[in-house]
């Protein structure tokens, strides 16, 4: 029986990841460089180490790498001023509360980043537990964030379902023993996600109660 839902943040609640890709791609093009989607996908749901490694292979000068990163961050900030939740997110949170489910969040991003947007979107109050990179020694795909979240929610791993959009996040959830539902965004929709329990195109297309019923069969 499912007693808790644990949401990822970036790419799931709001689609920061597509915006990041667009920002980096624009800056790369300004410098006559190319950023392949498969390289960018490696860092989604985890930290930016994979992207930093790619930068080092493509851009020799440390100063130029720093300048590109700073310019991409500037573009991202501007693009995110008009951010809203992805379709169905608010409905899922409200339905989870109506069903009496405990609600948590597990993100590889920083606490300030996550809570800042949750406050801006006026949905922070839904989350009983929030676990971010400051709470663990390893972020996703390591299961530590999910293990910490379910411990704080006081549920067993098999009593919780994670909602994710990335391969790194899905691996973290499954390795922690949770059910995992994938809701891919524009950047991750080309991935297969073979080991998850369910994949839906959007939270708009099917209600939370129905999703829980399907993964509990």
CATH architectural category of the largest domain: 3-Layer(aba) Sandwich
Number of strands: 6
Mean pLDDT: 87
The topology string of helices and strands comes to: EHHHHHEHEHEHEEH
Distance between the terminal alpha carbons, to the nearest Å? 10 Å
Per CATH, the class of the largest domain reads: Alpha Beta
- Read across the widest sheet, the strand sequence of neighbours is 3-2-1-4-5-6
How is the biggest beta sheet arranged?
A: 6 strands, parallel
Structural class: alpha/beta
How would you explain this protein's 3D organization?
This protein is α/β, with parallel strands linked by helices and 217 residues long. It folds into 2 domains: 4-15 and 83-215, 3-Layer(aba) Sandwich (Rossmann fold); 16-82, DNA polymerase, domain 1. Helix content is 44%, strand content 11%. It is built from 9 helices and 6 strands; from the N terminus they run βαααααβαβαβαββα. It has helices at 16-30, 37-41, 49-58, 62-79, 89-98, 111-120, 144-153, 167-175, 208-215; strands at 4-7, 102-106, 129-131, 160-164, 179-182, 198-199. It has a 6-stranded parallel beta sheet with strand order 3-2-1-4-5-6, with helices on both faces. α1 (16-30) crosses α4. It starts with a strand and ends with a helix. The relative contact order is 0.19. The model has no long low-confidence stretch (mean pLDDT 87).
């Amino acid at each position: 029986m499912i007693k808790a839902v644990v949401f990822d943040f970036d790419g799931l609640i709001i689609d920061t990841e597509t915006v990041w890709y667009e920002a980096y791609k624009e800056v790369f093009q300004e410098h006559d460089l190319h950023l392949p989607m498969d390289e960018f996908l490696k860092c989604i749901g985890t930290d930016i180490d994979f992207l930093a490694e790619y930068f080092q292979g493509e851009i020799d000068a440390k100063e130029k790498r720093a300048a590109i990163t700073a310019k991409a961050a500037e573009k991202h900030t501007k693009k995110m001023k008009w951010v809203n939740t992805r379709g169905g997110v608010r409905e899922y949170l409200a339905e989870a509360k109506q069903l009496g489910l405990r609600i948590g969040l597990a993100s590889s991003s920083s606490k300030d980043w996550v809570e800042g947007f949750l406050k801006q979107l006026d949905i922070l109050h839904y989350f009983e537990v929030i676990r971010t990179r400051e709470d663990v020694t390893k972020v996703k795909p390591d299961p530590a964030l999910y293990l910490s979240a379910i411990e704080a929610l006081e549920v067993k791993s098999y009593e919780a379902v994670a909602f994710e959009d990335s391969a790194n996040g899905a691996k973290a959830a499954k390795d922690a023993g949770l059910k995992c539902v994938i809701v891919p965004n524009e950047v991750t929709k080309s991935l297969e996600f073979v080991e998850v329990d369910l994949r839906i195109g959007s939270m708009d297309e099917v209600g939370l109660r129905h999703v829980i019923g399907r993964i509990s069969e």
